[in-house]
Design a protein that fits this description.
Blueprint lengths: L1 H4 L4 E5 L13 H8 L4 H16 L6 E4 L6 E2 L3 H10 L4 E5 L4 E5 L5 E5 L3 H13 L3 E3 L2
Antiparallel strand pairs: 1-6, 1-7, 2-3, 2-4, 4-5, 5-6
Amino acid sequence: MIETLLNKPYWVIDFLPEQVPDGSAGQFFAVEEYYLREPALSTLRRRFTDILLKLNCYYDFQVCAADSEEFVRNPAPDILASRILDTQENLCILLPREDALITLDRDDTCMTVYNPSETLLNRLRLLATAEGLFLWQP
C-alpha cells in the first residue's frame, strides 16, 4: 500500500513557500544545512509534531518506521511526538480512510503528503500556516 501511495501526486510542508529554482543566486544548501542542525532542527521538528498531533484529532493514523511495515495505530501523543522529535528514523504515517500517506525523513526539512484529498489539504494548509510553515505542490 505504501509503495502505491508513493507514486501518487504529492505536496510538501516546508519552511519555504515554494521550491527554490535551479541556479538560484541564494544560499539554499547553506540554509538547509542550518535547519538540519540543532537548535533549528528541534524547532522545525516541534512544528511538524504539532501539525501531526492536531491532525490526529481528525484522522486515524497508522505509524511505522519507513524500513518496517509494523504499524502502530494511533500511538499515544507523547509516543508519536517522541518518534518525530528523535530524528533517528524515517517515518510513514498512513491515513487509511483518506488513502493518504505522510512521510518525514530524518535528513529532510519538509514533510511529504501523498494523495491528499481537498479536505485533507485544507486542514494541512491551516495547520501549517499556524506553525509558520507552507504547503505547496512541486
